[in-house]
Amino acid sequence: MSQLELEDEVQDDLKRATGEFVKDENDANKLSRVLQLTGFSDPVYAEAYVTVHHYDIVLDVTVINRTKETLQNLCLELATMGDLKLVERPQNYTLATESSKQIKANIKVSSTETGVIFGNIVYESSNVLERTVVVLNDIHIDIMDYISPAVCSEAAFRTMWAEFEWENKVAVNTVIQDEKGFLDHIIKSTNMKCLTAPSALENECGFLAANLYAKSVFGEDALVNLSIEKQSDGKLSGYIRIRSKTQGIALSLGDKITLKQKGGN
């Protein structure tokens, strides 16, 4: 390899290490991670690009001064709820008329629990004696960023199912009328792996039971049992039970399933 190729290889390794390379990263995926933090009529407009690197969340906040005044001591004040911790408080800035500023904020994640980041933008201007506060929209951290499909034996699944103390039970409520189609939808929505053999799911008998399993980046186990029955009117009924050693996974995964199970998208 030439010196140039070696340097490119090192750069690629660095990008992988810092999370810049994401396999399915495309324009649509990037846009889905841009969150509007303030309204269009607010004197300061802000939006955040959220990047998740396992234990770290990076907020790249763009702040735009939409007033005709220079804003002084402008500060992005953030607070967290859940197992999230702000690494350092962003510094103060002076923002000229109709100019913009990129502010980065780093947040550490310590467990797989749906957390919330909220805060304000505070600034001073010459024609207002006291500091002005613009309240930001909340940023909800998605549990799916921390869960990946995993495999375990049936015996291990049963042992964990018996041992885990946290259970969340979600009633099936969906417009999907095909049992296998509903199972596939839940697998896709929860980013889990189906442990039940395909041969056990093939027959059309009006009943379906399947076990799903996933692990978090923190080594936590997530177990799901899906039991559904087709009613005489064609609708599906039953329950989705989630078990975990931690309350955060059981509640967050239950909320995700409740939100996603109704439709087919």
UniProtKB/TrEMBL annotation:
Membrane topology: Peripheral membrane protein
Domain Coatomer beta subunit appendage platform span(s) in chain numbering: 130-257
Subcellular location: Cytoplasmic vesicle, COPI-coated vesicle membrane; Golgi apparatus membrane
Primary subcellular site in the record, as a coarse category: membrane
GO CC annotation: COPI vesicle coat; Golgi membrane
Highest taxon in the source lineage: Eukaryota
Alphabetical UniProt keywords: Cytoplasm, Cytoplasmic vesicle, ER-Golgi transport, Golgi apparatus, Membrane, Protein transport, Repeat, Transport
Any one Gene Ontology molecular-function term assigned to this protein's record: structural molecule activity
UniProt cross-references to InterPro entries, sorted A to Z: Coatomer_bsu_C, COPB1, COPB1_appendage_platform_dom
Residue ranges constituting the Coatomer beta subunit C-terminal domain according to the UniProt record: 5-124
Pfam families in alphabetical order: Coatamer_beta_C, Coatomer_b_Cpla
GO biological process: one example: intracellular protein transport
Protein known as: Coatomer subunit beta-1
Organism: Solanum tuberosum
Record gene name: LOC102580399
